[in-house]
Specification:
With 273 residues, the chain is an alpha+beta fold. Helix content is 22%, strand content 27%. The protein has helices spanning 28-37, 71-76, 99-105, 196-207, 231-234, 239-253, 268-272; strands at residues 50-59, 65-68, 88-90, 113-118, 132-136, 152-155, 158-166, 169-173, 183-193, 217-220, 224-229, 259-264.
């Protein structure tokens, strides 16, 4: 989970029912049985591993769903489900999600589930009363959209939430939306990636999610990775920035890779269009 100062309008990043009846994570006995069956062969998540996870993150105090990779959970909350729902790539220790969340992945096995809480000080920080301001409503005449309790408005370049309106004044809270909130989290390790091609595909999909990863050609040698970029990806806004970030991640997370080459091919018929 990435650090986010505001609550999303839809679930994401982004197979269990945490809404009313959360699944019970593996008991100690069950975990012991799994360990016994594959004693000495269990691969556990360690820092720097590329891991695919399903998760649900809610506000403990209110039960509000903040983020999930699971469509069923989003549908039960009545959230918009037009976005992609699939396991998300996490790399413990690399800041892809909250540090406290990534730390919980360490030592888990593929298929293992866990439920835990993240206190405010390890999530989005405590709520700061000094960031709550009372503003005369006349000063907000240029604010876009209606000003109602609960609406988000931009004042002096900062986003705040309207907490109350009265006597010609508006109370606006400029704290991050999740400041002071305890996060109730569920996570399941879907897969620990070990194959080079799997890792590269996961990194590509994480950076360029709008193009089917199978459309990218991938050639791996001992010290280099060559990626053939499909035409539809070449036209995406921000693709050059995404490619640079992707190359850096591949060289960081794939052992012995010293060079990443991108091939973009424009054919005669494409050049004419």
């Amino acid at each position: 989970m990435e650090d986010r100062p505001t609550a999303p309008s839809k679930a994401t990043l982004n197979k269990e029912v945490l809404i009313e009846n959360p699944p019970s994570p593996m008991s100690e006995e069950q975990r012991g049985e799994v360990a016994e069956r594959v004693e000495g062969a269990v691969e556990l998540v360690k820092e720097g591993d590329l891991v695919l996870i399903d998760y649900v993150i809610k506000v403990k105090e209110t039960g509000e769903l903040i983020e999930t990779t699971i469509r069923d959970v989003a549908e039960k909350e009545g959230l918009e489900v037009s976005s992609r729902f699939e396991p998300k790539l996490a790399i413990p220790g690399r800041g892809y999600m909250l540090k406290a969340f990534e730390e919980q992945l360490i030592g888990m096995a593929a298929g293992e589930e866990k439920r835990f809480e993240i206190p405010p000080e390890k999530a989005f920080g405590p709520r700061d009363p000094s960031k709550v301001r009372v503003i005369p409503i006349r000063r907000l005449k240029d604010v876009e959209g209606p000003i109602t309790v609960g609406s988000r408005i931009i004042v002096d370049g900062k986003e705040g939430i309207v907490r109350s309106i009265g006597s010609g004044r508006v109370q606006v809270d400029f704290n991050p939306y999740l400041a002071g909130k305890t996060l109730d989290c569920y996570v399941k390790v879907v897969k620990i990636l070990s194959d080079k091609n799997e890792k590269i595909k996961a990194l590509i999909h994480n950076r360029i999610p709008d193009v089917d990863v199978e459309k990218f050609g991938i050639t791996v040698t001992e010290s280099s990775v060559t990626i053939e970029v499909p035409e539809e990806a070449m036209l995406l806004p921000g693709i050059q920035v995404a490619k640079r970030a992707l190359a850096r991640e591949i060289m960081e997370h794939i052992n012995s890779v010293e060079k990443v080459v991108f091939i973009e091919t424009i054919r005669k018929e494409q050049a004419r269009s």
